[in-house]
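Morning!

This is the sequence you dropped in the shared folder:
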Amino acid sequence: MLVAAVDCATLTLSCALAEVGEGEVTLLADRTERAEPSGRGGHSARLPGALVELLGLLERRLPDVEGYAVGLGPGSFTGLRIGLATWKGLAYANRRPIAGVSSLAAMALDAAGAAPAGAVLVPLLDARKGEVYCGFYRAAGGRVEPIEPEAALGPVALLERVASLRRGGAEVLGFGEGFGAYRDVLAGPLAPLEAGPGTPGALAVARLAAEQLRAATFDPQSLYALEPHYVRPSEAEIKYPQGLGPGAKA
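The structure's back. Tokens below.
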């Protein structure tokens, strides 16, 4: 099965084509680009062109894609919407199955091979506003299993969570752009995994989604229901919890 995978949770766009077999996922082609913080030339300008270019390298076309895998976040609200809307549109137009997975879980899967056995992996992305998006995973049998829900936490709250995990005897390792943003505060209490990825990779997204896609068929209802995993409310939801329609309270 030829699978197109993407993650747009950060300023880094990761796109890949992979062959999903019965027991393995093989990378065929990939592309990673960093968008400008100003927003010019961002993910919306690169998709779906990045995918079309990868297909061209393999002398394939969009109808040849048999499944779509997408990172659902948490991360940039705008980036997540762009990636998911593009992949949902392609899946719908070509009547192909689509699966969404956690972007933080993809980071943990990429890091698992470099971590000691039994370690707790804590992938971190900068959530701005003095917080990081964080996941808590343990590698097991070539997979990663969540041991606590993903969250948006300030550095102090994160370290309290880390201390709780360490009391259970686990080695807790942090990595990712979020770790870099707060390294002065986090390093020490949270041991760095220097070999861990800074951002989510599309191949890991494909690997996580493979089991769902192998047995899947085109299902419009499942496609419609797929939504980004924001973790925390948007600024609009905070400012206008009752909405802006008739009768809404500011």
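Headline: The first strand starts at residue 2 and ends at 7.

More detail when I'm at my desk.
O.
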